[in-house]
Amino acid sequence: MPDMKLFAGNATPELAKHIANRLYTSLGDIVVGRFSDGEVNVQINENVRGEDVFIIQSTCAPTNDNLMELLVMIDAMRRASAGRITAVIPYFGYARQDRRVRSARVPITAKVVADFLSTVGVDRVLTVDLHAEQIQGFFDVPVDNVFGSPVILEDMLQQSFERPIVVSPDIGGVVRARAIAKLLNDTDMAIIDKRRQRANEAEVMNIIGDVSDRDCILVDDMIDTAGTLCKAAEALKARGAKRVFAYATHPIFSGKAVENIKNSKIDEIVVCDTIPLTPEVKALKNVRQLTLSGMLAEAIRRISNEESISAMFHY
After folding, report:
1. Which SMART domains match (predicted)?
2. pLDDT-above-90 percentage for the chain
3. 39 is in an annotated binding site
């Protein structure tokens, strides 16, 4: 069996190190830098011929730079005759551009990225909580989409929630919220239905379910500007919620996210380390980060040993 070798770009260096530590190995010797004009420059400084190579790189902000690094690293590995190349993409950027809504003249960029990865020679993709699971069908290679929910659920079970209720921030997140509610001792669930009654009117948040005097647990796959999340927390508190907690896998935190969270009624936000936190986000007292390094390390080990990935998840 070929040896497993891990390499990392500049997107998630700490997560990559933690994954390597969990696998009792070290990251491979690779230089991912820039030429003077800003073009990506990659140099592999060890033999990878015939090896089972895993490249760890989220395509988070700066999205285009990190995506280009990943593509160039894959190409370098392919030209160096690596036996198998798996792209480990904890956060898959451009995943929200996965359809043409009402035949609008827009690209399906998630498909474009999938084509890029296939074209440069990746053999397999490992990612976490894809925004839309059907994106797996955009690829011409196998895709393993693993879930952050076991790590998130483990943290939830360690908390002292008072009369908890799981809340889906929108209709699209009901399946995720229902799964968490079932595993969280089969607790109750509420749904926030966002709608505009008429054009140019403010968005109204209708809460389906009784949240009065309860700890509300909002669950989502990602937090971007945190605007919708903060409005949801405000609506829940207005309906009598005792405390509001938010759990999400991907901490994008773009735009006015820090300002929105500072001014929000959210008691705590818990995210995973698929994207590094900026110093400004780290300074927020109500934001906490969990690591997916153990889960990703186990997934990598299973792929390398040709074992089942689905067996990691029992629900």
Report:
1. Pribosyltran_N
2. 88
3. yes
Q: How far apart are CA 98 and CA 223, in angstroms?
A: 18
Separation CA 177–CA 102 (nearest Å): 27
Q: Check whether 259 is labelled as a binding-site residue.
A: no
Q: What is the pLDDT of residues 110-137, one digit of tens each?
A: 999 999 999 999 999 999 999 988 999 9
* 220 annotated binding-site participant: yes
| pTM higher than 0.90 | yes
CB contact at 8 A, 282 and 262: no
213 is in an annotated binding site: no
Contact between 155 and 120 under an 8 Å Cβ cutoff? The reply is no
Q: Which architecture characterizes domain 4-146+293-312 according to CATH? A: 3-Layer(aba) Sandwich (3.40)
DSSP state of 53: E
Q: Which of 194, 242, 256, 265 is catalytic?
A: 194
Side chain identity, residue 303: I
CB 57 within 8 A of CB 11: yes
Q: In whole angstroms, how far apart are CA 17 and each of 32, 56, 57, 158?
A: 16, 10, 12, 26
Residue 99: predicted pLDDT: 86
- CATH topology for 149-284 is Rossmann fold (3.40.50)
Active site residue 111: no
Please report the pLDDT score of residue 198 as a whole number.
58
Domain segments of the chain as ranges:
4-146+293-312, 149-284
The answer to whether residues 96 and 131 touch, using CB atoms and an 8 Å cutoff, is yes
The pair of structure tokens assigned to 225 is 């500007």
